[in-house]
Structures are given as structure tokens and as C-alpha cells.
């Protein structure tokens, strides 16, 4: 029963991170109206809540053992305070149906994050991490195959995305695929398998043309390498295999031309040379985000202390969302909202510093991935995994069982002679 609950917890968390706002109604040919009942996220959160009740009952009759997860009360309180404040901001928001939907999403995020911390009580930390990253790799691997088929079937002329999601969302998912592959590699997995898988995740993110996604993946991988304490010999091997895998894809697959085009158009011309529609200029193309940023700042300045209220930005017709998590919190929750958000980060920093020798590098890398990516794409709910990943990182690092250095479990012969 314990093993089943632990596996279910990891899989539910992984699917919650990946599901987003996707619903079964999208499969209808007529595109029926959105319904909370037809969205997997609601059922996933209910499953997490059920496991949380079991976790409380389980923790009531015995003390924690070495190697088991222990949620951090300070981080949990900070996360709860932030979501409670953002939920309360709905009371002074402009009258709009959008407020109800966003309040629903805030409640879902709060229940899932806090429920996960409670459900993880008295669980083997390694098992929780393996279940979570196993679910991430399996799901994102399937999405990668679907994306490749769609991309190649369409002639390779469009930015890569799947199942109705945008390119920025797909880039973040491919970043999680890369980090999941690095997680299993660091745990002693076969180098010949996991390093090329990580490289493919990075390449697919490049095909999306998402510059914010590319920057977030770079930051995430650097965080993984810094915290993972990878020996230099293994690091060199990682780089060589990644280069070989990338070169093979570019030279011998139909993706080579598409990759070159994406790098030239999205990353070089738009970012470094774009100005007024002329790629010979020296400005930077921000896809209209600079307008949204300016509107969010102006709205926040009008109501600096408490903000304009939940979902005020779209309700006032300023755009779907500011495309920056901090600006969204500022314009809708004011300086007080930012203070609650900073409180979450400070609480996590305290936990991370205290358990720095047992932090899981891939999970911290995922925190960095979502944090950096949320500064140029998505709204508060799109950043939901940021809070869940901080809770996951905190409760597993408290167990103190994550190895300090890379220690492969498999023999060198099992890695193809590496």
C-alpha cells in the first residue's frame, strides 16, 4: 500500500504539471464549451487531496524514519499565505466572469501544492522523486513523438507545438524532458540512452522558436550542473555525447534544415537584428510583450499597494495576461502580492540552503526552468508547477538521502564501455 501511494503521488504530481488547462472537450469535433468537469486538472487535484488525507492518517501513528520526506512548515505557510492573498484579491477585482475562473485556478494550485506536501509525509524520498520524474519523462517523451510527427507531417514550416498548446508551453515541456533524462542519468542510468534523450529535448525546444524557453532551459541545465557536483570526466562525456547526438540529428534527419531555419529566424534575426520590420536594424523584437509590460506597470502604479484585483488585467481589456509573473502579481495584487511572493522564495531559499547537500539537482533545475520561463510567457496558473516543484524539492531534501556526488549504480560496461 505504501509503495502504491508513493507511486501514485509522483504520477499525479507529474500529470498535474503537464496537464495545464487541457480538457477532453477539445477532442470534440465541434469544440464544445470549456467545462471544469472535463478537465483532468480538477480530477488530479482531487486525487492529490485524497492522498493528502491518507498521508495525515498515516503520519498520525508513527514517527518519520531516515530517508523519508518531511515537508517544511515555513514554506507551506508562505505558499498558503500567497495563494490566500491572491484569492482574496478577487473581492476588489473588476466585475468579470474571468475572475471566477482565475479564482478557481488559484484554489486548485493552493490545494495541489499543500496537499502534495501533506501526502508526501512518511514517504521514501527517492521513490517519490523516481515516480515523479518517471511520469514526466514518459509523458513528455510521448508528446515529443507526437510533436515530431505533426511537425514533419506539416512540412516543417511552422513552430513546433502539440495538442492545442503554444510553442512556449511545448518548449517548457521539452525542458522538463531534458531534466528528467539528466535525473535518471545522474542516478546511474545508461549514459548512451539518457544524454541523447536530454539533447533531443533541448533540440525540440529550439524548434519551437521560443527564445524565453531556450533561455530557461540553459539556466536550468546550468543549475543542474552546479548542484549535481558532476565529476569533470562525466561532464566531458556528457558534452561529447550531446554534441554527437545533436550533430547526428542535424546531419542525417529532416530536422536539420528546420533547426537551422529556427536558429536564424527566431534567435538571430528577431533577437539581435530586428528593428521596424528590417532585419538589418539593431533593435530586439519582443513579440509585442513590451506593450503588455507597459500596461501592467501602468495598472500597478494606479493601485500600487493592493493592485487592481485578481484577473483585472484581462478584465480591463489590457490583454490576456502580462506574460510576466512578477508584473502580473504587481498589477493584480500590488506590492503586498509581491511581498507574499518574495516570502515564498525566501522560505524556499532557507530550506535549500539548509539542505543544500541533499538537494536533487534536477528538481532545482526544474524550479529554475519554470521561474525563468514565467518571466516571458504564461500567467500565474501556467507557473503553478513552480510552487509544486519547490514543495517537492523541500520535502525530499529534508530526507537527506540524495547523493552528494554522482555515483553510477551501473557498471561501466552497462553504459556501452563508457
From TrEMBL:
Residues 197-341 form the O-antigen ligase-related domain. The keyword Ligase applies. It comes from the Bacteria. It holds the Pfam family Wzy_C. It is a multi-pass membrane protein. GO terms for molecular function: ligase activity. It is found in: Membrane. The chain crosses the membrane at residues 43-61, 73-93, 99-121, 128-149, 169-185, 192-208, 214-230, 235-255, 325-347. Keywords: Ligase, Membrane, Transmembrane, Transmembrane helix. InterPro entries: O-antigen_ligase-rel_domated, WaaL-like. PANTHER family: LIPOPOLYSACCHARIDE BIOSYNTHESIS PROTEIN PA4999-RELATED (PTHR37422:SF13), TEICHURONIC ACID BIOSYNTHESIS PROTEIN TUAE (PTHR37422). This is O-antigen ligase family protein. It comes from Pyxidicoccus parkwayensis.
